[in-house]
Amino acid sequence: MKNILKIELSGERKFGLDILRMVAILCVIVEHGGIFFPENLKKINDLFVFDGVSIFFVLSGFLIGGILIKLLEKNQIDRRLLMDFWIRRWFRTLPNYFLVLFVLIILQVLFTESSHFISPGTSVYKYFIFSQNLFSEHPWFFPEAWSLCIEEWFYLLIPFFIFLLITLVKLPPRISVLATALIVLCSVTVFRFIRYESITVSNYNDWDNLFRKQVFTRLDSLMYGLIGAYINFYFPKKWLKRKLPLLVAGITLFISAKYLIPNFTRVNSLYNCVFSFSIVSTATLCLLPFLSDLKSGRGFIYKSITYISLISYSMYLLNYAVIQWWILDNIPWTSFMDSAGLIIFTRYVLYWVLVIVMSILLYKYFEIPMTRLRDNTKIKKTMMAGALG
What we know:
The protein is mostly helical. It has one domain (2-382). It contains 18 helices and no strands. Helix 2 (15-33) packs parallel to helix 16 and helix 4 (52-74) packs across helix 11 (220-234). The model is unreliable at 378-389 (pLDDT under 50).
């Protein structure tokens, strides 16, 4: 059993970024796990939860932006370069996503009386082209997919816009990257403001569905990471010069956004609907200089953090719809347990065990083979050695 769950750890990873990725996924898992608790315990649980998905967005923008900048600066700009970038990104993200999507569709069709999500109103095809929450509320089916849509549209649109500025407007990559990031960041913020002025937000669900979980209200979060990648690549000394003060500033922003500002704002306020996402993204960006320079660690804590970081994508895909809805919610707990407290405890512990074990299995026996398949294709031969890492 030990060998089945064992994952080989690479010494080439940046430990600081693994820390941030681990914090992000644990915030998501803890938040989703709060559903098992009664309301009073859930409030305590939520005190320890920060916006893990926004952290993921900025981190993705930083990592993918760094890859893209290196490609643009080290290789000749042509259509093949852009296509190769897309294929490599899709090989990394789509196999796991489509596997879980197919599993959920099969379960829905086989074990429920209604398969209304396949009807025209909530067509399942939208999940295959990531269009289910472009400008509208994300459907109830496969709820985790809302953030993946934002990531995939980032992978598709941002390199394309940069490519257009380089090839048509004849701007150098250095200017094209920064211009794209700033234009998208400002445009999305303005779009949120226009939406805020034109609709009524009555409660948390309105805010969550109309502002937090739509592609064109959240695409700016990844731009903060792209700006970080830009500074890191073109101004590496300045990137690291004030890493400690920025780390303190980032932590302060996180604490303020979590515990202080909510005491003075309502869910339908201008801050919550327009600027709260910007604050969390800025806070994450401030952490990146320090964490990106923290390259290695050692011991049990280092291994645990790296382990969680490696399986974080699988954890995100599996924890909610698959494990909570289809496994834990279908166990007849009251048939063999009388104590409500014991049921809560057992469900919560089993939730964590299943998330960890199933994510390791998905990562080791599906995600890694798919990544190796990607690296064995002809795409690898077209890239500069080490450009994609």
